[in-house]
Specification:
alpha/beta; seven-stranded mixed beta sheet; 38% helix; Rossmann fold; 212 residues
Length: 212
């Protein structure tokens, strides 16, 4: 009986999340794999790689929507990322789940962080921003980036002004610069840095989180 109840609850939650999504799009992201040293030295070249990102358009959303880019941690895209995506979608905010591992043949870096430079995911975040800016459903003035653990470090570095200019096209530079004017928060080992403070404020109220 308990198993049945749990299964029913899981099915209900899955149905509820599905009902919040009007459309799911998978977008290729052209990036490169480079060492942290090369990244900090301002180099843009490296081993080319094609990554993927999942854009979820919430049901009922019209026109250009705010978007939160979700950057996973050392374990790759997991249930924690899906949970946060569902929360944002329920608020009418689109989400873009960036997968920095699969295109590189990685599943996890938990046992060996040396498999991928930490700043490679910062570079990936910049490339995701460029993809989103061109999407007709995305408001380029309202793009946020949120990372989990390793991904949180990537997002925080992405907000550093001196790292932005050499790696972002002029058309997306203004949006990236706004990230340096925003707040950060920690919750369940996640770190988020957003270019739309109102998104995090609304989410914190919904999730009962503080501004710490």
């Amino acid at each position: 009986m308990l198993r049945f109840a749990l299964a029913l609850l899981g099915a209900t939650l899955a149905t509820s999340v599905a009902a919040q999504i009007a459309r799911i799009e998978i977008h290729p992201i052209s990036s490169v794999t480079q060492s942290d040293q090369d990244f900090l030295n301002g180099k843009r070249d490296g081993k080319p790689v094609t990554l993927a990102g999942e854009l979820r358009i919430p049901d009922g959303g019209k026109g250009r929507l705010p978007v939160v880019v979700l950057v996973h941690g050392s374990g790759g895209v997991g249930g924690n990322v899906a949970e946060w995506a569902g929360g944002f979608n329920a608020m009418g905010i689109a989400t873009f789940v960036l997968d920095s591992f699969t295109g590189r043949g990685l599943v996890s870096t938990s046992a060996d962080q040396g498999l991928l430079g930490r700043l490679a995911m910062t570079y990936d975040t910049y490339r995701a921003l460029e993809v989103l800016e061109k999407n007709p459903r995305v408001d380029p003035q309202r793009i946020a980036a949120m990372g989990f653990s390793r991904g949180g470090q990537a997002v925080l570095y992405a907000s550093v002004r001196r790292l932005i200019s050499p790696r972002i096209s002029p058309s997306t530079r203004a949006a990236a610069r706004r990230s340096s004017q925003t707040t950060t928060c920690r919750a369940v080992r996640s770190v988020c840095s957003t270019v739309l403070p109102t998104i995090t404020c609304r989410w914190r109220r919904a999730a009962g989180m503080s501004h710490g």
